[in-house]
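Batch job 17 of 40 flagged for manual review because the log was empty.
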Amino acid sequence: MTKIIMHGCNGKIGRAITRLINNQENVEIVAGVDPYLEVPNTYPVYPNINECNIVADVIIDFSTAPAVKPLIDYALTHHTPAVICTTGLSEEEVTYLKEASKSIPIFFSANMSLGVNLLIALAKRATEILGTSGFDIEIIEKHHNQKIDAPSGTALAIADAINETLDNTYAYRYDRSQVREKRPQKEIGIHAVRGGTIVGEHDILFAGNDEFITLSHQATSKEVFATGAIKAALFLINKGPGLYNMDHLLDA
């Protein structure tokens, strides 16, 4: 039986993970962490990670960026593998996470959906063919009106994957209202839309002369992210120290 601490257990995805795990036989949540304590749970919930004294095999994190560093410190102290699903981390926080992965196994992905990670792989392949043929590249992401960070971590992950394919020679443009000029060729436009209850949509537009190609992914339920997080947690068990991602999981 795999024992999990759910960090951010009372958020929307935390609750989805709880529902899914309650229907599985090989895994259980033994403790939760969340500053909001009004949600009834079958496991004890602590307001912060340092108050948790329950031993677990792995931690799943779906919280907020400021809560990630204390979580990593806890994981290092207790030698507990951690699946970090929180987005909007600063460069400093990502660097801290990477340094910690030299001591414990950490799984980190901007998006836990298997479909999104396939989308990224397809975008890289499309870029190999179209990126050097004069096609302009734009990324449009849409999320619910409660999402704090913009652009989404997934949009940035898509842009980074495309840019790596182009030898990191392209610049990112988030807002064209600041400069009045024609679109440079070596640019990736990244646009954020916020509204309603949109779970998550990502479109990658390759716009050429007289033809346009769009790669799209739509999530209709947060359970797609919950499912990926649980798979990542089970994958991380018995792994050695290192930084793991969805590519490792998809290849396993």
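Reviewer: the log was empty due to a logging misconfiguration, but the result itself is present. The chain has seven helices and twelve strands. Unflagging and moving on to job 18.
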